[in-house]
């Protein structure tokens, strides 16, 4: 059968749609990939016309997206309704919000879709009813039918490499849907990405992994990892066949250090000989161990990104349900410090209406104690539909639902607060934390001078600045502008300096280059 796969997320990697495409191709079906990411809230009319034309020969249309792409998925579903093509909607948003998605799509896939889509197509080909296929949801009259969920795929090594062939791939560009460039350098950044695991060991309320675990309800193993050999094989193939000009690799696993020392050792040895590019990965503080850092540093690890989220023990325990003590964070920071070729980057969440003044001061205090130099990435809280924290915010009356949850915001786009009243509490202290994004040295946290912090956090100063919201708004807008400028400069720097570690720490590179 011919299947059109559409991703409305602003991400050309689109691993969900690409992997489904590979699974279908392996089974003898043909696919067409439409990757329609953009920062716009809606598609222009010309783009919708292009979509209708491109999916014309297809027997089935599949959507995949996160919550931020759901509005545009609904727009496409409405635009192609006259074509009478069966539409199946999968991906994270559909898995956690099947009733909503069933209003726009004929069929909704909850959970992993690789086995489900094959069974669905087999039913359609043979003219049998698909209504009993596991993982599917659909409307029947006024009722939403939720079929039982099949166990998650136990052996990730059986999955093919995601489809990066680009033969039948189309992108949204300047308001039209056009053939994807055959040269990946024209579509993707030189930074190759991949993920070799599924699931997360933590149960954070702001993340959707918690609800996905509930969806499976103990039906199979939720947290799974590719074997080191298969992981490296996929990375090497991606680099050799599809991204020969890649400068580095970002491993997207939720916590790469969940692997044992033996797995890390095997991965490091294979990666060093078969791939050899600098790489970075994400970790959680409790998993940091000196031997793991050492082994991976020898294989090319140049940066560790670690979720801290808050310096408030209360917030982590009572709001995020991520009870990682600050001492554990500090211990991890000290361990990374012992490996000077590895740059630590710490993630923090701001714009959280459940935090009070003391919570924010605790976060700033933890930032000042972390070993330097380090880097901070500041995330803007979003109540993702389907998350535990979203449900709590609705119950508490902070939000009415999806429309005012902040789902339209990119969590890395700065402190976006104007459209959401629940983000405007403690605006001054959140602005201070926003200023810390970037490099921390012995003298500063981002743009915030360390010597100024005791004065800026005096109760009288906080009270005064809380009344001077115009000043806070100017500070936030200025920081957003600086981040955008930094991103543009960073693009130029990375084009001139191939090593990501050198581009990330330009002063160190220049000192080594000219002394």
CATH class call of the largest domain:
Alpha Beta
Structural class: alpha/beta
Oligomer: single chain
Q: Write out the strand line-up for the largest beta sheet, numbering strands in chain order.
A: 7-6-5-4-3-1-2-8-9
What does this structure look like?
It is a single chain. By secondary structure, the chain is α/β, with parallel strands linked by helices. The chain has two domains: 2-170, Rossmann fold, CATH 3.40.50; 191-447, pyruvate-formate lyase- activating enzyme. The protein is built from 20 helices and 20 strands. The chain has helices at 15-26, 45-54, 70-79, 92-96, 98-102, 114-125, 209-216, 228-242, 261-274, 290-299, 313-319, 326-337, 357-369, 388-395, 427-435, 453-456, 459-467, 469-496, 500-504, 506-514, and strands at residues 2-7, 30-35, 60-64, 87-90, 107-109, 136-140, 143-146, 169-173, 176-179, 191-194, 197-198, 224-225, 248-251, 279-283, 301-309, 343-350, 374-380, 438-440, 444-445, 448-449. A nine-stranded mixed sheet has the order 7-6-5-4-3-1-2-8-9. A seven-stranded mixed sheet has the order 10-13-14-15-16-17-18. Helix 9 (261-274) packs parallel to helix 10 (290-299) and helix 15 (427-435) runs parallel beside helix 18 (469-496). The radius of gyration is 23 Å and the shape is globular. The N and C termini lie far apart (63 Å).
Keywords:
single chain, about 525 residues, alpha/beta, Rossmann fold, pyruvate-formate lyase- activating enzyme, 2 domains, 9-stranded mixed sheet, 20 strands, about 40% helix, globular
């Amino acid at each position: 059968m011919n299947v059109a796969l559409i991703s409305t997320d602003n991400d050309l990697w689109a691993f969900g749609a690409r992997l489904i495409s590979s699974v279908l191709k392996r089974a003898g079906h043909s696919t067409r990939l439409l990757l329609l990411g953009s920062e716009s809230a809606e598609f222009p009319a010309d783009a919708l016309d292009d979509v209708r034309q491109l999916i014309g020969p297809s027997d089935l249309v599949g959507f995949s997206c996160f919550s931020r792409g759901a509005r545009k998925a609904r727009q496409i579903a409405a635009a192609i309704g006259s074509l009478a093509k069966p539409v199946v909607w999968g991906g994270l948003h559909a898995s956690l919000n099947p009733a909503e998605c069933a209003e726009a799509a004929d069929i909704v896939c909850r959970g992993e879709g690789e086995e489900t889509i094959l069974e669905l197509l087999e039913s359609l080909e043979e003219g049998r009813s698909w209504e009993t296929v596991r993982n599917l949801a659909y409307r029947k009259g006024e009722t939403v039918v939720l079929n039982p969920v099949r166990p998650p795929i136990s052996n990730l090594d059986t999955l093919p490499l995601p489809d990066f062939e680009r033969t039948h791939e189309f992108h949204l560009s300047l308001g039209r849907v056009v053939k994807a460039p055959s040269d990946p350098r024209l579509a993707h950044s030189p930074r190759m990405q991949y993920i070799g695991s599924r699931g997360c060991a933590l149960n954070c309320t702001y993340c959707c992994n918690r609800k996905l675990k509930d969806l499976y309800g103990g039906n199979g193993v939720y947290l799974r990892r590719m074997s080191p050999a298969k992981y490296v094989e996929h990375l090497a193939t991606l680099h050799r066949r599809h991204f020969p000009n890649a400068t580095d690799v970002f491993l997207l696993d939720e916590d790469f250090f969940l692997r044992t020392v033996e797995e890390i050792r095997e991965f490091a040895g294979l990666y060093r000989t078969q791939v050899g590019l600098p790489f970075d990965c994400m970790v959680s503080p409790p998993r940091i161990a000196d031997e793991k850092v050492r082994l991976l540093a020898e294989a090319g690890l140049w940066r560790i990104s670690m979720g801290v989220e808050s310096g408030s023990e209360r917030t982590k325990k009572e709001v995020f349900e991520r009870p990682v003590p600050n001492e554990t964070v500090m211990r991890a920071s000290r361990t990374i410090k012992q490996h000077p070729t590895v740059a630590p980057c710490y993630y923090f969440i701001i714009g959280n209406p459940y935090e009070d003044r003391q919570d924010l001061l605790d976060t700033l205090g933890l930032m000042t104690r972390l070993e330097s130099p380090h880097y901070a990435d500041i995330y803007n809280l979003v109540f993702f539909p389907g998350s535990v924290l979203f449900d709590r915010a609705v119950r508490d009356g902070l939000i009415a639902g999806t429309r005012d949850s902040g789902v339209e915001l990119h969590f890395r786009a700065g402190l976006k607060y104007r459209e959401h009243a629940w983000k405007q509490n403690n605006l001054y202290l959140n602005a201070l934390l926003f200023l810390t994004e970037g490099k921390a040295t012995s003298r500063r946290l981002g743009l915030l001078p360390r010597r100024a912090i005791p004065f800026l956090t005096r109760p009288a100063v906080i009270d005064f600045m809380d009344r001077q919201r115009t000043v806070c708004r100017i500070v936030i807008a200025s920081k957003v502008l600086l981040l955008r400028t930094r991103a543009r400069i960073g693009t130029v720097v990375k084009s001139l300096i191939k090593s990501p570690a050198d581009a990330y720490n330009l002063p160190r590179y220049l000192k080594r280059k000219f002394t």
